[in-house]
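Q: Structure for this?
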Amino acid sequence: MVVELENVKKSFGKDVHALNDLSLMLNEGQVLGLFGHNGAGKTTTIKLILGLLSPTQGKVRVMGKDPMTHSEIKSYIGFLPENVQFYEQLSGREVLRYFARLKGQSLKHVDNLLGRFQLEHAANRAVKTYSKGMRQRLGLAQAMLGEPKLLLLDEPTVGLDPVATKQFYEQVATLQSHGCTLIICSHVLPGIESYIDRALIMNKGRAVIQGSINDLSEQANLPIHIDVQADYIPPIIEGEISRKKVLDHWRIEIKPSEQIQAMQQLSQLKGLKKLLAKSPSLDDLYHYYMATTAGMTRCQGGQGAAMATTAGMTRCQGGQGAAKATTTDMTRCQERSQTITDGSNKKTVTNKFSLEVGS
Amino acid sequence: MSEATFNQASINPMLVIAHKEWTDGRRNFWLQSISVLLFILALGIAYLGGAVAGQVGFTGLSNTIVSLASLAVLIMPLIALLLSYDAIIGEEEGGTLLLLSAYPISVFQLFFGKWLGRSAVLGCSIFMGFGCAALVLAFTTDVMVDELFIAFGIFIFSALLLGMSFLAIGMWISCISKSRAQAAGLSLLLWFFAAVLFDLLVLAILVLTQGKIESNFLAGLMLINPADVFRMINFSLFSDMQQHTGLMNLQQDMNFNLLHLIALAVLWVVAPLAMGFYQFNKRSHL
């Protein structure tokens, strides 16, 4: 186990609870996406893993050791903090050489890293002349000094152009194939889904949900969007939740369980010009889960509201008198039947809120 | 420090940090500008120091050192505080302090590496600035060369201690401040108090009490200010100057032992440094 957090709680003083009962296990070669708004507890989690903070309660182990007392493990950790300003008057090469020496690494790899991050042409220029993207690439090169076994990256793609972002993701895949464990923190990274094994969504110091993207999708049960353009579209499609006209085509929301039937039905349409199905993206899932917890907070105050807890997430039951959650993320409320499993009990509840997530 | 030594991976992180601070000092032109400033200051005083008394040209070694000490006591703390006030807080605001704490280096190595590097910048500037001035004087005046070098040697040594103690105080301020601006403000306040206000206050007490207070007490009071300790060292050595002004008369009454004064100056380097390290250590383990 590379990273092990067991029921970790971290408070600052009496009133500030930065982390509450967080558990996290990461094996060698796993990539975790750690998502949440500002103040969700991402940075505190990273600081705990780096051994810069001690947990108020619970256990933190990195490579089997307590990072607070075993600073030697830092030689195997790469870190890129959010908003780091490197020494402006030094050149890119000098900055990397400085950090390589501090890590006790040979300077041979510095030029190699500069090349990997397309900085060799600017290697001898002062960092103050670098663009935002170049600074970020320098930061990433710094984090990868000494082939770390664990990489902690806070907002790694901020300032990167699409080409550099893609190259960064490819680096992530290469590192993973070499057995490096990665934790990538972000508000949300478009396009990262296929590079992470697991996602952990945090809100106000708590884990909202944790699991693979598939787990998250299944639990959220968000509708599939099908864009269709044809001469005639029947008034009801199998599993249809809603439809709306978008430019020259219709966008139909389908229950995920009935997407195959719906696609089959639509593919038979006369004069079919366009048929495109889109599963919910990580962005949609993130907004869904954030809205769920936000809605939850409101529901708690509503008359007659009840709580149902599923694996790692809290959901609001839409019984009579339940408060309607109308957050900015949710553009529409609609009634929908949903099965929620909480391990021992299986029950059907009517979910009064949620669903269509604002794009 | 040569590149060759640094190519060894196992070099002490403290030296790596000190070397980087030294490079910063050079790139920011701190090293060059402080050296030139001190050089011009020393030569200016040597040749024009007597202008007030109607004399132009070099008027003697003691005169020069005493005048130089009076000016250095104002300017040296300011330079040292400017060099050090952002040592820690600057790194924190830039985000690199958090990054460095993820590196396998200790708080001790980071703090003293920064201090060492910045001390080297200050020390070299003092040595080059005043040293070159002494060389010019050796060639252009008829003062005995050995006398000149001993006098300037002692002066440079004491100026170094003065600079180092304010450098340490600046590091301390840097560790307790919440922002770079706050550290700059605190440094300026402290400089004003130690270099300007303190002597005026002691003088005011002396005048207001019309000598009823033990002069020993007042002279003792001056020992709590590193700027005055520096002045005492120089004035006690070059005491053929008969006309001491203001507070230095007090010091004459006391006749402090030179070694004690030097020990006190060293203490003024060590104590704030220890306090700074204590604060830094506390800050990094929140």
